[in-house]
Amino acid sequence: MRLTGAQALVRALEMEGVDVVFGLPGGAILPVYDPLLDSPIRHVLVRHEQGAGHMAEGYAQASGRPGVALVTSGPAATNIVTAIADAYMDSVPIVVITGQVATGAIGTDAFQEVDTTGITMSITKHNWLVTEPAEVPRVVAEAFHVATTGRPGPVLIDLPKDVSMGELEWYWPRRLDLPGYQPVTKGHPKMIEQAVALIQQARRPVIYAGGGLVRAGAERELRELVDRTGMPVVTTLLARGVIPDDHPRALGMPGMHGTYTAVTAMQHADLLVVLGARFDDRVTGKVSAFAPRAKVVHVDVDPAELGKVRRAEVPIVGDLRSVLAELLRRLPDEPLELTEWHETLAAWQRRYPLSYEPSAPGGPTKPQYVIERLRARTPEDTILVAGVGQHQMWASQFWRFNAPRRWINSGGLGTMGFAVPAAIGAKAARPRQMVWAIDGDGSFQMTAQELVTAAAERIPIKVAILNNGYLGMVRQWQEMFYDERYSEVYLSPDLPDYVRWAEAMGAVGLRVDGPDDVDAAIDKANEVDDRPVVIDFRVDTFEKVYPMVPAGASNDDIVLPPHLLEEEG
């Protein structure tokens, strides 16, 4: 069967089980858009290519399947670079397909030409410049395999226009030949035995659970490890929900804005069992002062992470599900003797809980209160998406996560503007689940045009803007570390008018000015199921995120909220 390269690309996507593609057409990719008309694959027309990339990320994080974005050459390719870098930092499997000028024009500075593979080489697991139509099926199969195996991540296929229009005899590769790409999945038995020995000797162990557990689908194995041993567990920003927050051994999030107990437990630990985490600087603080008395067992599918920041006494390369299954097989059934450690942790939890000062009568709404009421008035399986800033930290702190893949956000790259398009992608992946995006006013303004996409495509996401009129996290740093010299952080709570803006983009717009109106607005938003909803929550301008470890400081220097210190003093 003779097909064009474009037809073969669409057919290959169908063979990979793709049901949704997020994209925007243009000259170099135009040949691919014609056979899309005859395909069962749904195309979601975005308003900006960065949005396509974040939608693919949201789809992948919510579903566990690779997200796909399709854009043209030149500025379209450069527009999607931010989303590719975001996916690379957070190990999110997406397949990005970019158009390219004809092969004969490459290198001539042709119209809308950029070196897409060169630009994205450092932020993809691999990328391909397709030079012959016959390569298309093989390259697509390889791309999906690379994106989803080993450490997941983004890949890119750059498709010149003449390759799309040329012909090939259709085939589907029976096997893939990728010399040098052989991810290790099974942990070394000797290393696993050594890990078991260290665990059995520990008296103050902590499981440091990272986003790799979510990517590996290893939540069941983690839960069994915790229940079997009694080891407490901290969950990083990307791992929230991998163990239920209501589990008696769950300590919450560690790091710069983590719970006091999670941060301090790691500092006092004699063993860290690190699972799919990478010792990010936001978790460790000052590396030389991080968990100074702890031995380390570090399990990761990516060997490059082992020893990169902290040397491990027992490094194990392998798939987390496989390694944890072997670890559990070798561990005795009896729990560890950790009574004293559990009592110490429980005392810290009672003494230093996550808390905030409630609104004074007639005072402004506290952002934490909005999040608590959202959690209380939405279904248990609601998917929560966050932008980047103070609102992201409050969401991780005050929402309660009891399952993985219900918390979607930008971790390593910290991409403002992530929430709205990622929520659209998540809703496209899980149309029967409610999807709420919690955003800041600054973050929302960066990609809010994608509400038009949500309205036009009938993807009814809900957005809660925690509007404090500032670039809140930057303002917090300027207040605490720059003598309250507020340089270029004021946004104004009234410009733009978010209700009218939402309505202009086909969404329902609501505004909440005080705590008494929070529940009614949430209930009204939850009743709308045929279009997006945006709620402009006017929140306390100068509320800060606590606890906080100042950048570059030791985790021992954690700063508690003033009201807790007053209660102690």
Top-tier CATH class of the largest domain = Alpha Beta
Cα end-to-end separation = 80 Å
The largest sheet has its strands arranged as 3-2-4-5-7-6
Outline, from the CA principal axes? globular
The CATH architecture assignment of the largest domain turns out to be: 3-Layer(aba) Sandwich
Can you describe what's shown?
With about 575 residues, the protein is an alpha/beta fold. It folds into three domains: about 1-170, Thiamin diphosphate (ThDP)-binding fold, Pyr/PP domains (Rossmann fold); about 190-350, Rossmann fold (3-Layer(aba) Sandwich); about 365-545, Thiamin diphosphate (ThDP)-binding fold, Pyr/PP domains (Rossmann fold, 3-Layer(aba) Sandwich), CATH 3.40.50. About 40% of the residues lie in helices and about 15% in strands. The strands form four sheets. Strands 3-2-4-5-7-6 form a six-stranded parallel beta sheet, with helices on both faces. Helix 1 runs parallel beside helix 7 (about 135-150), helix 3 runs parallel beside helix 5 and helix 9 (about 190-200) packs across helix 14 (about 320-330). The longest helix is centred in the N-terminal third of the chain and has 15 residues, at about 50-65. The mean pLDDT is about 95.
